[in-house]
Amino acid sequence: MYDEALVAPMRKELTQIGVQELRTAQEVDDVIQNTKGTVLVIVNSVCGCAAGQARPAINLALSNETLPNKVVTVFAGQDKEATAQARSYFVGYPASSPSMALLKDGELVHILERRHIENNGAEAIANHLISVFEENCK
Fold first, then answer.
1. Burial 27-42, CB ≥16 within 10 A → b, else e
2. CATH ID of 4-136, from 3.40.30.10, 3.30.1490.100, 3.40.50.2300, 3.40.50.970
3. Structural domain boundaries of the chain?
């Protein structure tokens, strides 16, 4: 587990733009099972591609007019139970951090795994997310 002092600024990058942080498995279930419509689940991480691409992409994508009903995050390597529970909804995909998954009425409709994030810039990832939002969140 990472030192909370190290992780706190990385958490804040998302929470300060309105992303809801989920720290327990129960919080994950409550949001995913009780949200009608779409939920974007961000698996945050300490890695370089989370800092350089994933978190900046989220910031850009959330400026779009069409957005998921909820945007939430769990922190891999820190909030282990919450992260494991979030990943349990990503049926058919291995654990990946960072990652971003869009669920609709609790069912996975789209996922961006680390391999999609680490080889692209923040703007390209944001544009991809925006197209996913436009297709699934209206």
1. bbbebbeebeebbbbb
2. 3.40.30.10
3. 4-136
Mark out the alpha helices in 16-104 (DSSP H runs).
25-34, 48-49, 55-61, 80-87
Q: What is the pTM of this model?
A: 0.96
Q: What is the pLDDT of residues 38-69, one digit of tens each?
A: 999 999 999 999 999 999 999 999 999 999 99
Which residues belong to the active site?
47, 49
For residue range 9-20, what is the model confidence (pLDDT) as tens digits? 999 999 999 999
7 contacts 75 by C-beta, under 8 angstroms? yes
